[in-house]
Design brief:
This protein is an alpha+beta fold. It has a single domain (5-289), classed as 4-Layer Sandwich (Double-stranded beta-helix). It is built from 7 helices and 16 strands. It has helices spanning 27-40, 52-60, 138-143, 147-153, 171-180, 214-228, 284-289; strands spanning 5-7, 14-16, 42-45, 83-86, 116-125, 133-137, 157-160, 184-187, 189-191, 198-200, 206-209, 234-237, 244-248, 252-256, 267-274, 280-281. The strands form 4 sheets. The protein has a 7-stranded mixed sheet, covered by helices on one side. A 4-stranded antiparallel sheet has the order 11-7-8-16. Strand 9 (189-191) and strand 10 (198-200) form a beta hairpin. The chain is globular, with a radius of gyration of 18 Å.
Length: 290
């Protein structure tokens, strides 16, 4: 079945038109959605007033879901498939540990040995202005590099860490996060397992290349991130309540913008589709000494 889509930007992204997730999707309909997902990298479904169970059920059509064992304090206590991205206080009144989630350019779960295939984020409560999310096309970013740069980075591995823009996050969370998520080295150039296309795999959670010091690595990391986030590669999404965004973490990178009044409620819920195994753990001493 051909699914009707409307482009969100020249660089990437499309809105899926005429799909209501309150009714069952046929295999043909979902096949059309999945083909659009592979083609556009980011899909938007507006006005989806669905339950958590329906969110999870739709997400499972894309593959096995992560139960977020690496982020136990951020997942829903009843639905471990749902990661809470929220500035709402915790039950004990303390600030949410996930209020700064995503405020670095990154690809979801890149700091694990099974990086995410895709993510499905639902806007439950959104501020009237601000709180946008930006996406960039990492196929296009790679393809725009010179032949010399492609050769230089072909065999490099970036060391990904699970940090977030976390000023004020509970020290216990940070300690547990480091214990559960040791540094993982991932190839800087990854081949998409379904399309066969090469994409950059870098982000602000990468502080060094394997075998190099942070000082040696920083100029090239900074260049690649600046290059990948040029306006011609980027789509900026302005959220509405009941939006669902679906994105392919294998060929995109994204950042949540903190450009909204923090006294207003911003509550999102995300499922994470598990991808194929990638990368290897880097011993902390080796990562520091490299």
């Amino acid at each position: 079945m051909t699914v009707e889509t409307s482009p969100l930007s020249y660089a990437l992204g499309a809105e899926v038109v005429g799909i209501d997730l309150n009714r069952p999707l046929s295999e043909s309909e979902f096949g059309g959605i999945y083909r659009a997902f592979l083609e556009h990298g980011v899909l938007l479904l507006r006005g989806q007033k669905i339950s958590r169970e329906q969110h999870i059920e739709f997400s499972r059509r894309f593959g096995e879901l992560d139960r977020h064992d690496s982020l136990p304090r951020d997942r829903h206590p009843k639905y471990p498939e749902l990661l809470m991205v929220t500035n709402l206080p915790q039950a004990n009144g303390e600030p949410s540990n996930s209020r700064y989630t995503g405020q670095l350019w990154h690809s979801d779960m890149s700091f694990t040995l099974v990086p995410s295939l895709g993510s499905l984020l639902r806007g439950v409560e959104v501020p009237p202005v601000g709180g946008d999310t930006m996406f960039t096309n990492m196929y296009a970013a790679y393809e725009a590099l010179s032949a010399g740069m492609k050769k230089l980075i072909a065999d490099l591995h970036g060391v990904h860490r699970p940090e977030r823009k976390n000023a004020g996050v509970a020290p216990e969370w940070e300690k547990e996060n480091r214990r559960l998520n040791p540094p993982v080295a991932q190839p800087v150039v990854r081949v998409h397992p379904e399309t066969g296309r090469k994409a950059l795999y870098i982000g602000e959670k990468v502080k060094s290349f394997e075998g190099m010091t942070e000082e040696e690595s920083r100029p090239l990391i900074d260049y690649l991130i600046r290059h990948a986030t040029r306006p011609q590669f980027v789509y900026r999404h302005t959220w509405r309540p009941d939006d669902i965004l679906v994105w392919d973490n294998r060929c995109t990178m994204h950042v949540a913008l903190g450009d909204y009044d923090p006294s207003l409620r911003r509550h999102m819920e995300r499922t994470t589709v598990m991808g194929t195994p990638s990368g290897h753990v880097v011993l902390e001493d080796a990562a520091v000494a490299a």
